[in-house]
Specification:
Layout lengths: L2 E2 L5 E3 L7 H9 L17 H9 L4 H22 L6 H17 L2 H6 L8 H19 L4 H13 L9 H4 L7 H8 L1 H11 L5 H9 L20 H16 L10 H13 L5 H14 L4 E4 L4 E6 L9 E4 L2 E4 L8 E4 L2
Helix pairs in contact: 3-4, 3-6, 4-6, 4-7, 6-7, 6-12, 7-11, 10-11, 12-13, 13-14
Bound molecules: fe (ii) ion (FE2).
The site of fe (ii) ion has 4 residues, from loops.
């Protein structure tokens, strides 16, 4: 309901989406209780922030990421409530963290040890943006294109803000009908970016086609081969990798090594661009030298050396002895822990 001060001035109209600032305002007015309607949300950023702060990654980078996460949340949520931010507002948020994360690639290692699916869509958007610019860089694309790819990754799932929270955050398997609704996020994203001040056709197409696969098995238009713009081919790799490596409401995360293996399989099956994937998995594997991980046997190991021929099966150290995962084919790196 509408909230008034003691002297009868309207303080907050009904249906206001409460933020911390509103709560402080209420406290200043000595209003200690209000009736609220709960909305489903992706949890808070608090849990994730606390975990990030505990990591031994570069503090400045972590702080930039946390700040960007909060801003992403309010920008994206705003769009779900009919705000109309222009492209510039999105790029301001994204480029600050992108620049920082390129200087401190250790951030990647930290991102995939986080537990819990809180704020998944916001984190996923930031991560995919960062990964897209990383892949563009590995492919030696020009600076302008690298910057474009970052933003394309950041905005690729914007259409999800128009999907009902019941479907978006459903813990179990989606029914066929729900999955059809979910697929619409690509079309919604296209429309939203097209209508955005400063949004371009190519940027909108990236949202539309990021679930297309080279063999025509994707959606929404079942494009094949060259019909899928190269930008979307990069986006598909970044999107899949981040999704596999993160905890979701319906599944636990998989290690970047297993994720890289899955990407490689998808590339061999003709779904992803094999040249792009091969650059990417090699680079990702190298990033994890020195990282600690848990094998499917439950043992803790340290990643020691990445092999040229099979970057996804490195040499690891297990309490004093070395194990070559190229030869121990039953062992897999299940989870990164630091
Ligand atoms: Fe998506």
């Amino acid at each position: 309901m509408d909230l008034f001060t003691e002297s009868g001035i309207l303080l907050l109209p009904r249906d206001t989406f409460l933020t911390d600032t509103h709560v402080q305002l209420l406290q200043k007015q000595r209003i200690w209780e209000v009736e609220v309607q709960q909305v489903l949300s992706e949890g808070t950023t608090e849990n994730i922030t606390n975990q990030l702060m505990d990591l031994d990654a570069d503090k400045e980078t972590v702080a930039a990421y946390v700040k960007a996460l909060d801003k992403t949340r309010s920008l994206f949520d705003g769009i779900g409530r009919d705000d109309k931010p222009g492209l510039e507002q999105f790029s301001d948020v994204f480029y600050e963290v992108a620049e920082q994360s390129m200087k401190q690639l250790g951030l990647f290692r930290s991102l995939y040890v986080l537990e819990g699916s809180d704020s998944y869509t916001y984190r996923h958007s930031l991560n995919v943006g960062i990964l897209c610019s990383l892949i563009a860089r590995l492919l030696k694309w020009g600076e302008e294109r690298i910057a474009f790819m970052g933003l394309a990754g950041f905005l690729h799932d914007l259409g999800k803000m128009r999907i009902s929270k019941e479907v978006l955050l459903k813990p179990g398997r989606l029914t066929e009908e729900e999955f059809d609704q979910m697929k619409q996020h690509t079309v919604y994203g296209y429309e939203m970016i097209k209508q955005m001040e400063g949004g371009s056709e190519l940027l909108a197409l990236c949202a539309l086609h990021h679930h297309e696969r080279l063999d025509g098995s994707g959606y929404p238009h079942q494009l094949k081969g060259d019909e899928v713009p190269v930008e979307c081919q990069v986006l598909a790799i970044a999107d899949m990798f981040d999704a596999i490596c993160s905890d979701r409401v319906y599944k636990d995360r998989t290690s970047p090594f297993e994720a890289a293996q899955l990407l490689w399989k998808e590339a061999c099956n003709g779904k992803l661009n094999i040249e792009f994937v091969s650059h990417f998995v090699r680079y990702i594997a190298l990033l994890y030298v020195g990282a600690r991980a848990v094998l499917n046997s439950g043992e803790e190991v340290e990643v020691i050396l990445i092999h040229q021929d099979e970057p996804m099966r490195p040499l690891v150290r297990r309490s004093g002895e070395f194990v070559d995962l190229r030869h121990e084919r039953t062992l897999n790196i299940e989870k990164m822990i630091g």
